[in-house]
Amino acid sequence: MSLSRIFRDVLNLFYPTSCEACGDELLGNEKWLCVSCWIAMPKTNFHLQSPNPVEQRFVGRIPIQHASSMYYFNKDTRIQEVLHALKYKNKKDIGIELGRRFGHELLDSEWISEIDVILPVPLSKQKLKSRGYNQSECIARGLSEILDIPVDTDAVLRRKNTKSQTSMTIAQRIENVKGAFEVANASSLIGKHILLVDDVLTTGSTLESCAREIVKVPDTKISLLTLAYAIE
Ligand SMILES: [Zn+2]
Fold first, then answer.
1. Distance 26 CA to ligand 1 centre (A)
2. How many angstroms separate the alpha carbon of residue 16 from the centre of ligand 1?
3. Within the chain, which residues score under 70 in pLDDT?
């Protein structure tokens, strides 16, 4: 291996030069994704419509004020590559940047100013240790930066290390996350409108299970955001 190749590989570790979604080389002013991938990722614009498909997914399950997702999630698409990088390739900064971009979009919604606190869906201690970070917290941090709303990572804990849900039916998923969450600091949530944030919405069983614990705290309201929305 030539010296220049080694130098380039080392540099690439710290300053990635290829797009996380399509693999093309990034231009000087591009970061994480190339401009065409940022443009091509399919936005839902659900935050401008109510009721919207995300809100409808929770009807009859838990009382929520508002809900939205930024992108449609389809298999074999750019958003899948990006979320994979965020979750499994230690690309925390992509999550923060996606959160910022989502934050800018949400400035156009009528309801975002009602939110008091942003709460990323927590990971179990064990999972947090093995991954090193909570990908939903990365998204929450980006949102917080733009919306100027604080993030709370201590009020709710995940006590159960749930199994991977990809091959489960809805009933199995609900059973899997039952009792997974616990409010550890109710006093910090009393009387607040809480924005629960997760990476992908599929059946919604994780968000539902987490929200069920939060609504037991007096005078709380809940809204939900996920970066991506999987069509069932
Ligand atoms: Zn690209």
1. 8
2. 13
3. 1-16, 161-164
- The tokens describing 49, both together, are 């419509």
Question: What's the gap in Å between 177 CA and the centre of ligand 1?
Answer: 35
Distance 77 CA to ligand 1 centre (A): 11
Looking at domain 41-230, which CATH architecture does it have? 3-Layer(aba) Sandwich (3.40)
What is the per-residue pLDDT across 116-146, written as a single tens digit (0 to 9) for each? 999 999 999 999 999 999 999 999 999 999 9
DSSP, collapsed to helix, strand or coil, labels residue 145 as helix
- For the chain, residues classed under CATH 3.40.50 are 41-230
223 contacts 115 by C-beta, under 8 angstroms: yes
- pLDDT, tens only, 70-104: 999 987 789 999 999 999 999 999 999 999 999 99
Q: How remote is the CA of residue 188 from the centroid of ligand 1, in Å?
A: 41
| Residue 90 backbone class (left: φ over 0; alpha: ψ -120 to 50; beta: rest) | left
